[in-house]
């Protein structure tokens, strides 16, 4: 678990570095009039920002999974009931019974 948090923080830092590098390239391209360098900078900004957002989503997902595991441990019978009802509803929605003669 701690290893996952370190990876998430590392991904955020890499994303920040990529975004900063992109900002520098974008500014340098704007100053020199080099559209290719400016476009490369904007792309790096985008990828850095996307990497940070992905790391944030991963953290949120971990929190949801931890809550679900805790709920199942605390209330196993209620969890089984919820899963059973959801399974029946999904089965009913995807496999409706046809009219029989």
UniProtKB/TrEMBL annotation:
Which domain of life does this protein belong to? Bacteria
Family recorded in the similarity comment? Belongs to the UPF0337 (CsbD) family.
SUPFAM superfamilies, A to Z:
Hypothetical protein YjbJ (SSF69047)
List membrane-spanning regions. Answer: 77-95
Record bears the keyword Transmembrane: yes
Tell me the ranges covered by the CsbD-like domain, including all copies. 11-61
Please verify whether the record's keywords include Transmembrane helix.
yes
Name-wise, this protein is General stress protein
Known Pfam families for this protein?
CsbD (PF05532)
Gene3D superfamilies reported in the protein's UniProt record: YjbJ (1.10.1470.10)
Q: Which UniProt keywords apply?
A: Membrane, Transmembrane, Transmembrane helix
Q: Where does the UniProt annotation place the signal sequence?
A: none
């Amino acid at each position: 678990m701690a290893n996952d948090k370190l990876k998430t923080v590392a991904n955020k830092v890499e994303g920040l570095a990529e975004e900063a590098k992109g900002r520098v390239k974008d500014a340098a391209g704007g100053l020199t009039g080099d559209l290719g360098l400016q476009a490369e900078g904007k792309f790096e900004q985008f990828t850095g920002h996307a990497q940070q957002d992905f790391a944030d989503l991963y953290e949120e997902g971990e929190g949801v999974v931890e809550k679900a595991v805790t709920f199942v441990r605390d209330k196993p019978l209620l969890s089984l009931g919820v899963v059973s009802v959801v399974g029946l509803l999904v089965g009913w929605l995807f496999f409706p019974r046809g009219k029989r003669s």
